[in-house]
Design the sequence.
């Protein structure tokens, strides 16, 4: 992957945002000074909606790698489009996650030679990476937009290192 598509997925790996949340991210949702983004919308089947859950609407603290990727993307997206991530072929917002899945994700995974994974694995990678780095489970849950730590624990407990 290169350019805007690479930035979108790299940002996904370092934020854990759902693809629908990534595609709906607007420039007004970015606060570079505070190193946060505001997750307020999702893009599903070409329509802007609220986030998947009420707790999904959140302020997300950016990892340094996410911040540098976001800055690189904003340099590429210098037009008057409000969305952060655009289709590089049209310079227009992506319609939905299905288009990017078929046109970008599937070919990239196939070309990489790794076992097939869905693009939702960007979210799983972020969560497991943060837990492996010993980030507090409550913080990870909040970053992912989970309403409590129960969902986070049931999905990612194996990544929490035991204190010896």
Sequence:
């Amino acid at each position: 992957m290169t350019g805007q598509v690479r930035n979108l997925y790299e940002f996904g790996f370092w934020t854990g945002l759902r693809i629908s949340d990534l595609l709906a991210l607007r420039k007004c949702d970015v606060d570079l000074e505070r190193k946060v983004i505001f997750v307020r919308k999702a893009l599903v089947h070409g329509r802007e909606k609220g986030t998947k859950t009420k707790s999904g609407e959140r302020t997300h603290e950016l990892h340094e790698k996410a911040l540098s990727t976001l800055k690189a993307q904003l340099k590429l997206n210098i037009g008057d489009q409000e969305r952060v991530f655009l289709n590089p072929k049209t310079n227009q917002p992506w319609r939905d996650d299905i288009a990017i899945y078929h046109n970008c994700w599937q070919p990239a995974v196939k070309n990489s030679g790794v076992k097939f994974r869905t693009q939702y694995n960007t979210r799983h990678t972020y969560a497991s990476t943060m837990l492996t780095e010993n980030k507090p489970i409550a913080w990870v849950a909040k970053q992912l937009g989970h309403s409590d730590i129960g969902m986070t624990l049931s999905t990612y407990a194996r990544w929490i290192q035991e204190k010896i």
In short: The beta strands are 30-31, 36-39, 41-44, 47-50, 58-61, 86-87, 92-93. Residues 97-112 form the longest helix (16 residues). The chain has a mean pLDDT of 91. The two ends are 41 Å apart (CA to CA).
